[in-house]
Amino acid sequence: MPVSEDQLRQLLAERSDPARHRPAPQERIAARIRRARMKRAAGAGLLAVAVAAGVVSGVTLAHEHALGRAPSYSGPTLPARFITSDGAAYRRLALTFMTEPARHSASLTVTVGSEPVDVMGACTNPDSGVTLDVAVNGTLAGVIQCQQPQPVAVSVPPGRKAVITFVVDRGSSFSFPDVHASWKLAAYAWTPPATVGAAPAEPRLPQSYTGPNTTTGHGNAVRHLIESRSGDWPADRTATFHLTYRGRDLDVNVFCAGLIGSRLLVTTSIHGGSTTTPCTTWSPRNLAQYASILNRQNGTSITLTVRIQAPSPDTAAAYAKRPASWTIAVYEEQT
């Protein structure tokens, strides 16, 4: 029997009424925003997926397969040992598997000691678009992408345990119930080379680029390079700029190169205030997305200090033996 327009409206009202009386899940919305930002940054990965979980003396597994029988897995392997191009030696400490949709999470428990630890992952269905959220001691630390994973550094103070949890992000695929993929997840300890090798080429930024016009608040605007500094980690760690605000917003871009480039932290200080963020891997598309915007009263003098540092004091000595390079560039909007 055909449904009248009034009946259809009544049916839609009945179906939507519960949602109108349900409060918005603000915490889940905020978490989804954080995941989206991490996934956008994960597109520029250089190594295999890794979450640095501090330093290790022993590793135990939680939610491991009880009888030691691994599920069927035919994806990329995670080798027992390997050496990266910058000379760091990795050795596998523990291994676990996870198969979707039967399981949606897995975890590794790491007891800290003397060596930095990374967690690596690989999966059998790179076209699924599904990712894993990675939490360290309950705090969201990054994401694993099946297609091209990337390292994310998280420190654990010596003498503590780090529970690293991998959870399928249900919002990463529109057809989540239909996704079938097997994941292999492993913990590695790594030792830096005895001496620092040659640093990679410094990121070469353009003389200008176009991005949203933040000075007027509408349209796009060209930015022109007005000053830049470059250096090699770990020898070069600080750059200072003396700038004058001339009524046009200034964009500060900081980019790093090298296997540990995206793990290094960047602290930007201006007149007593400071912010710290992970360094961005160089890509032309990242110029407009990751720039910090400076604006002051017209004619104001600005002293900008940028410091590059290891992700944690506990692993600073190890990171000081792995090379990287960086470029800091300040652009002025043209209106």
| Share of residues in helices | 10-25%
The number of distinct β-strands equals 20
Number of helices: 4
Global mean pLDDT: 76
- What is the CA-atom radius of gyration, in angstroms? 23 Å
CATH class term of the largest domain: Mainly Beta
Backbone shape: globular
What tags apply to this protein structure?
mainly beta; Jelly Rolls; eight-stranded antiparallel β-sheet; six-stranded mixed β-sheet; 4 helices
Description:
It is a single chain. This protein is mainly β and 335 residues long. The chain has 2 domains: 151 residues, Jelly Rolls; 127 residues, Jelly Rolls. Helix content is 12%, strand content 46%. It is built from 4 helices and 20 strands. The strands form 4 sheets. Strands 2, 3, 4, 5, 6, 7, 9 and 10 form an 8-stranded antiparallel β-sheet that branches. Strands 11, 12, 14, 17, 18 and 20 form a 6-stranded mixed β-sheet that branches. A hairpin with a 5-residue loop joins strand 3 and strand 4. It is globular, with a radius of gyration of 23 Å. The termini are far apart. About 18% of the residues have low confidence.
List the helices and strands and how they pair.
Layout: H1 5-20, H2 26-41, E1 50-53, E2 55-62, E3 81-83, E4 89-100, E5 105-123, E6 131-136, E7 139-145, E8 151-154, E9 161-168, E10 181-191, E11 208-212, E12 220-233, E13 238-244, E14 250-257, E15 265-270, E16 273-278, E17 280-281, H3 286-290, E18 292-294, E19 301-309, H4 316-319, E20 324-334
Parallel strand pairs: 1-8, 14-17
Antiparallel strand pairs: 2-5, 3-4, 4-10, 5-9, 5-10, 6-7, 6-9, 11-12, 12-20, 13-19, 14-18, 14-20, 15-16, 15-19
